[in-house]
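Notes from the 1:1 (GR / supervisor)

We went over the backlog. Supervisor wanted to see one worked example end to end before approving the batch request, so GR pasted a single chain during the call. The sequence is below; no edits were made to it. Supervisor asked that the structure be written out right there so they could see what the output format looks like.
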Amino acid sequence: MRRGRQTKILAVFAVIFMLLLSACSQTSGNTATTTTQTGPVKIGVSVSLTGDASADGQAIKQGYQVWADYVNSHGGLLGHQVQMTFYDDATRPEQATLNYQKLISVDKVNFVLGPFDDAFTVNGATVAKRYGYSFIQGTGTSPKDFTHGLTNMFSVSLSASRYMASLVHYILSLPSDMRPKTVAYVTSDDGFTSAQVLPVIPELEQGGLKTVLNKIYPAENTDLNPIAASVVASHADVAILGTSALSECTAYLKYFATQHYNPKVLIATSGPDQGSAFTQAVGVKNAEGVLVANGGWWPTIKTYQNDLFVPAFIKKFGGSPADIGSDSVQAFSVGQVLQQAIDQTKSLDNAKIIDALHSGTFQSLQGLVKFSADGQNDLAVPYLFQWQKDNLIPVYPQAQAQANLEFPKPAWPS
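Structure output shown during the call:
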């Protein structure tokens, strides 16, 4: 990380200087989409194609690509083909800021859509608001994201504070003699992960479960073995891991397996939702019984355009339905909502799109979408998913479950 640091700093300052010069020529409003459109509709995204979140970033890019291909094969947006531009932010929030600044002020895209992760999302939406652009996104779901007055930002996904509701309901619904007794909580100091994990603590404690470990570690921490060791030493019946990337989840699971620590319930906030990328990282047998909470999507769900999305994704990128990660689903859902807002307004004007998003109800792969005043999706439903026999399937709520939840979690393979 230190090699070539001086050169990189000079390059960043040069980019900032160029963008500031360009920004000076812009009005505070959006001039890119208020005139008659000619040529393609240009859409820009900053995405983590390198760095710690590259697996998530690649999945988001794939979701947007499948959406753009589908739209272009069905007449485009108001008769115009979609042209996507992706800039790598290298998993650095400050680079995402520069990327969105460039997309709007230099590339003059018609719309910008969301990246991966909360900090990146807030940075991007802040730039977008400055220029009067709408900012639809799927991964910025921490409640803190919606406290910045970003009236142009809209999340198509479930609020992170509600992700674990189904886990709590399941555990507390168990007969007292079967119910776990102790819980270990560890989470990255990240808006997405802590927003999921921290609300669970008082709810499970109120239900009689004892907290034996509660640790928040810096988001930039790369050596997770000491933290994993503290979870093992706690002997907790339930391990709740606030992981912000696949790499974090992989590190925990591999350590637990080597130490033969097998909690009755093992759930992670990010990683198990990444389809085959997860099973390739930890092994199919090690994935068995691992849980993840998420919004409402699985390969066979009967939601808007899912019967088109799944085969289109497989045709473009190969694999099976189980290989499709939630990031790709969220990105496609973002595109769906943008297209519906454009169709409703018959306009590419961001101001009109923002008004439509505040007032309308939309459909997506993840279910119905209706935004509250602060941009959160009020209609999203929390689901609990579990890896069973090389498939990630819904196991709770019971009415939507494809199988019973494996409890306790099966032992690690010998």
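Supervisor's comment: The chain has two domains: 36-158+306-370, 162-294+382-400.
Batch request approved.
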